[in-house]
From TrEMBL:
InterPro entries: AAA+_ATPase, ABC_transporter-like_ATP-bd, ABC_transporter-like_CS, BCAA_Transport_ATP-bd_LivF, P-loop_NTPase. Keywords: Amino-acid transport, ATP-binding, Nucleotide-binding, Transport. Residues 255-276 are annotated as: Disordered. Residues 11-251 form the ABC transporter domain. It comes from Streptomyces fragilis. PROSITE patterns: ABC_TRANSPORTER_1, ABC_TRANSPORTER_2. SUPFAM superfamilies: P-loop containing nucleoside triphosphate hydrolases (SSF52540). This is ABC transporter ATP-binding protein. It comes from the Bacteria. GO terms for molecular function: ATP binding. The lineage of its organism: Bacteria, Bacillati, Actinomycetota, Actinomycetes, Kitasatosporales. Belongs to the ABC transporter superfamily.
Length: 276
């Protein structure tokens, strides 16, 4: 049941600058919102800064020697920039890391039980509820509870990584390239699951290089290029722009019949690049 939507909150990222170490600027004046109940996607090539944004939101940035140097991140009333990961999880914000990092030596069930650790008040009922939710979404995991996670297929490991995050009953799920390296059929399955999770009341910030999948799922989309938001708009509109079709949807002939310069006409209010 959609307990997740009890306290509807918007994620607001405002004019965010992030650097790694002393000099590497990874994000510059990035702004985006994830309204309650929505799916928002952040697209971009390798190295654009997608993972960095999720790390900043989930409080894991510091583990990678990164820091927010300007701007703010709020989830409802909660200030998230500068917080640690436990604070984010407590606020209802949970990240599924890229590369589906499950605990390879632990069983499926042990991996699931590790989800939401640090939350405190984890009653046996909550854990039972969480497992039931996960097994309903992923019947394959239910059949493999005692299997070592490292022996699962890539797609199953992605399911487990998502399932583990759901054990913390997130209100906002941060997904980092869930489709990466998966066969098309599995990508479709993951897409269905994201839809289902969202339908249950959880907002989703979906980071993807697979623009086709992401734009089909999302309400709103942003394109990140070298640390800056280049394009923003309703996902359906972005999917029609020449630049996105050519660069991110792999349509070589997208220029035919299109006028180019998609930027201004398709991003109402212009690209969100912070203070212009
Ligand atoms: N721990 C780190 N230390 C230094 N630079 C990093 C670190 N993590 C990422 N970067 C750099 O930050 C930029 C954005 O990386 P990332 O957020 O991982 O991009 P994406 O997820 O879009 O592929 C890249 O130039 C990358 O090399
Ligand atoms: Mg990444």
């Amino acid at each position: 049941m959609p307990r997740a939507s009890d306290e509807a909150s918007t994620l607001r990222v405002e004019n965010l600058d992030v650097t790694y170490g002393r000099a590497v600027s990874a994000l510059r004046s990035v702004s985006l919102d994830v309204p309650p109940g929505s799916v928002v996607t952040l697209l971009g090539a390798n190295g654009a800064g997608k993972t960095t944004l999720l790390r900043a939101v989930s409080g894991t940035l510091r583990l990678h020697r990164g820091a927010v140097t300007a701007g703010a991140i709020r989830y409802g009333e909660t200030v998230l920039d500068g917080q640690d990961p436990v604070a984010a999880v407590r606020a209802g914000v949970v990240q599924v890391p890229e590369g589906r990092r499950v605990f390879a030596a632990l069983t499926v069930d042990e991996n699931l039980r590790s989800g939401g650790l640090g939350l405190g008040r984890r009653t046996p009922e909550r854990i039972k509820e969480g497992r039931e939710r996960v097994f309903t979404l992923f019947p394959r995991l239910a059949e493999r509870t005692r299997q070592q996670a490292g022996l699962l297929s890539g797609g199953e490991q992605q399911m487990l990584a998502i399932g583990r995050a759901l054990m913390a009953a997130p209100k906002l799920l941060l997904l980092d390239e869930p489709s990466l390296g998966l066969a098309p059929q599995m990508v479709e399955r993951i897409a269905e699951v994201v839809r289902e999770i969202n339908a249950q009341g959880t907002s989703v910030l979906l980071v993807e290089q697979n623009a086709g999948m992401a734009l089909a799922l999302a309400d709103h989309a942003h394109v990140l290029e070298v640390g800056e938001v280049r394009l923003s708009g309703p996902a359906a509109e972005l999917a029609r722009t020449d630049a996105v079709r050519r660069l991110y949807l792999g349509e070589a002939d997208a220029t035919e019949g299109a006028t180019g310069h998609a930027t201004d006409e398709t991003a109402p209010g212009g690209p969100e690049r912070g203070a212009a």
